[in-house]
Amino acid sequence: MHVRTLARGLTAALAVTLALAGGQASAAPAAGDRAAAPRVLTYDASASAEFRAAVDRGAAIWNESVDGVELRPVAAGQRANIRILADNGWPRAYTTTLGSGTVYIGRQAVGQGYDTIRISSHELGHILGLPDRKPGPCSSLMSGSTAGTSCRNPYPNAAERAEVEGNFGAALTRPAGAPRDAVAAG
Ligand SMILES: [Zn+2]
Question: According to the UniProt entry, where is the signal peptide (predicted)?
């Protein structure tokens, strides 16, 4: 019991440290660093061409799925944390720091029949700190292409949601009793 409490304390301290480091490293609005508020990350999808709606849907799915971070379209003239572009390669994400980087929605995978919304939320998952989990089932967002072209699931599973909450520190600041079973039940 004591060991477990100590371990949880250390985990909490580490997560807070990471959250603070992430906050300092990005150009997020000041409000994003308040303890109970989600960290706001802006994204610029103006160069995502025919995938614009899929990108917006992918961002909305993350907003529905986690409390610790919120993805918002960047205001005109502002610099975004995340840039999302269309190109003819394979979909990929380059993360600079947690919560910022560049995503390419590659037409190569779309041409092979992969779902554009799943691609969008998968690549945004990388920006939110998730690694690939390949091979894996369709229920896993980060199994990516290994789930096959028939897989159209764009939602992170409970473990993936919890990992993102941990990355952004929400699990630590959420008041007891707040609804979010995946984290509270752990
Ligand atoms: Zn991936």
Answer: 1-27
